[in-house]
Amino acid sequence: MPAVDWQAELAALKTLSADIGNDPLLTQGAGGNTSLKVDGTLWIKASGTWLAHATERDIMVPVEMAPLVAAVEAVDPAAEQAQQFVVTELNGSGLRPSIETTVHALMPHRVVLHVHCVDTIAFAVRSDCAEQVGPRLKGLNWSCVPYARPGLPLALAIAEHSGNRPDVLVLANHGLVVGGETVKEAAALLADVKARLRIVPRMATTPDLDELARLTAGSDYRLPHSEVAHGVATDAQSTALAAQGSLYPDHVIFLGAGSVIAKGNEDAAAVVKRMGTAPVAIVFPGIGILMRGDAVPGADAMARCLADVLARIPADAPVRMLTEEEHRQLTGWDAEKYRQELARRAQKKIA
Q1: Which among 125, 124, 126, 127 has a CA at the least distance from the CA of 142?
Q2: Which of 33, 84, 91, 194 could form a disulfide with 98 if both were Cys (CB 3.0 to 4.6 A apart)?
Q3: Domain boundary among 141, 170, 196
Q4: For residues 255 and 258, what is the distance between their CA atoms, to the nearest angstrom?
């Protein structure tokens, strides 16, 4: 691709990234990532940055593909440290590449978009995901990839499905990946898949804001940034699903394992006392949710995401929750600790 063309494509990717990042039904907070391959260099979103900021901040990091792909093929732990392969002289931001850089590097497409589309996730958390999405994706070259921890394990899982060079990947308990030769082509495919997998959500009742104000007494809790987030509590079916555990990685990273459900007449202070710690979010069935006062914006984004996803899962759906071992892999991972630290630094700047 000529220099002028790839620069125009990178600019187009940034515009598309911002559009994706500003749609909470496609990605939330620092989740999701986009990339462009140019003459052996992979330009990919930096870890901990928001796609929504793509046109106003320098969030794309250049990575040398050949040694990174070689590390993945050798199952070398170095592949988990994508910052080792950054083209330093082009990395003005000094940031690390996305934790899912290996996934983008292994995709054969020039442009790759990875999103946490809530409609897709509502299918991806089902044990019968492939059977459910198959008819909807008919005519497309797609694959359903079993759950694997983001990073090298996910890249290796995707590699097992690379034989047919799928353009669409539905990642179990995670999200969606699409690829194309141009930004325009990838954007069109993403829009097509999103439309095909659209699910009409259940309507939740209105939260009881007066009661929530009472429940914050003596505690450092507040209302969530989005009123949509209350749906986890005001829709009984969603509450029952939330009580079963965690559905996808970013929930664990930003909200903790599972969901904390208040009991009986507990207020926020009583829940904290019972738990022995202050959870990031508390679900008050039939009333609404409260967020811890210092919760980062990414946590609020994930609180809304949970409500959006749960409202799209039928009561009779066979749902697969993340296991205890999968929780442990996420919370003890250096790449995620780095992403959380960036979120905390951003929160301090806002404060």
Answers
A1: 124
A2: 33
A3: 196
A4: 8
Tokens found for residue 289: 């949710």
pTM: 0.92
Chain-centre distance for alpha carbon 25: 11
The answer to whether residues 62 and 112 belong to one domain is: yes
Neighbouring residues of 136: CB distance < 8 A, sequence distance ≥ 6: 196, 197
Q: Is residue 334 in some structural domain?
A: yes
Verify that 169 and 247 share a domain, yes or no: no
CA distance 170 to 141: 11
Are 121 and 254 in a shared domain?
no
Is residue 299 within 8 A of residue 226, CB to CB? The reply is: no
Separation CA 318–CA 72 (nearest Å): 33
Q: Looking only at Cα atoms, what is the longest distance across the chain?
A: 65
Q: Residue 190: which CATH number?
A: 3.40.225.10
What H or E segment, with its residue span, contains residue 46?
Answer: none
Q: List the one residue out of 190, 188, 194 whose CA is nearest residue 123.
A: 194
Question: How many separate domains does the chain show?
Answer: 2
Q: Could you tell me the residue range of the domain that residue 225 belongs to?
A: 209-350
Distance CA 111, CA 103 (A): 12
Closest CA to 232 of 253, 254, 207: 207
DSSP state of 114: E
Residues 6+ apart with CB under 8 A from 35: 13, 42, 43, 44, 45, 98, 101, 104, 111, 112
Distances (CA, A) of 116 to 23, 28, 154, 224, 327: 10, 7, 15, 20, 18
φ, ψ at 158 (rounded to 5°): -70, -35
Q: 294-334 pLDDT, tens per residue? A: 999 999 999 999 999 999 999 999 999 999 999 999 987 55
Same domain, 231 and 154: no
Tell whether 201 is covered by a domain.
no
| Boundary of a domain, candidates 160, 175, 196 | 196
As given in the structure block, the two tokens for residue 153 are 């394990």
Asked if residue 58 and residue 107 are part of one domain, the reply reads yes
* Angle (nearest 5°) at CA 75 between 70 and 77: 100
